[in-house]
């Protein structure tokens, strides 16, 4: 497979290029085991994928949705299909709030439109349930029906593998709005999936972040909803109990871009395309690192008035101790949009043993079953 050099899209403001190398080196390179010298960085990625989220596709666009939301989503899907603006990814993950929804009668039409938009994609699309797909009603058969009809009953909580990495798609869409039985079922499933694949590199996909991506008191005010993070601490404890194999947690929901490292796990939240700063992310997985490039849509599709963390939604803009300007607060600091983390994980907990990444070309067609055995779909 030929890998083309990434091309920078036209952006409004500072270039939206973010390079990040994640702890996956400890997991992806058995070469490192027993060696004192660092692994040599290779120039060709093993695979790549695109993260899109918070597209808020709206069949009744213009009524109560985000400005140009459908146009933005179409541009990104067509860009991924064509390879014109960046190398065509091996697959796409849609990390929630893919539709606007808002009312139960809107879910079906919005999801139908999204499915039409996705048709040009030539690669697998892996959706994640966001609060707008089910109107915060995680676990409700009535509210999940349209999503299940669009993507399948097996695409609510599920796993898939690619290149030996286990991706865990977790539905935490009702993080602040559902009862203990639903939360327990979610956590039991997550714990089982993590325990059934010991020593396998993992990336978790969930719409609502598990930790605050800004100073919590400030974020609670700027976001304006209690769901600025998943407040069920048990979910986070389950994930952190497997910090020897969990590389990252990829999320959206906040409509801002940020990265926080906690206990060796990288929590990466992307703003999404519907609202300012109109971001998406590209991930390139190497044997010794993962590079993530956060980019902004072309300037004609950037809509500053859709910023939900400042004017005009609020009477003022926001900053915190780590983000000194409103621009940094919403789009992330330069080192959140352009940085590298070696996979040796010297930056974090150092006692974890190196793990091996399988390079089987057919891994994209496999999934982990609950006993941890790879089975063909």
Tell me what you see in this structure.
This protein has 377 residues and is α/β, with parallel strands linked by helices. The chain has a single domain, classed as Metallo-dependent phosphatases (Purple Acid Phosphatase, chain A, domain 2, 4-Layer Sandwich). Helices cover 24% and strands 18% of the residues. The protein is built from ten helices and 13 strands. The chain has helices at 24-28, 69-82, 104-118, 131-134, 141-151, 180-195, 216-223, 233-240, 326-331, 334-337, and strands at 47-52, 91-95, 125-128, 158-162, 165-170, 202-206, 246-251, 258-262, 265-269, 279-285, 290-296, 366-368, 374-376. Strands 4-5-6-7-9-8 form a six-stranded mixed β-sheet, covered by helices on one side. The chain has a five-stranded mixed β-sheet with strand order 3-2-1-10-11, with no helix packed on it. Helix 3 runs parallel beside helix 5. The two termini are 23 Å apart.
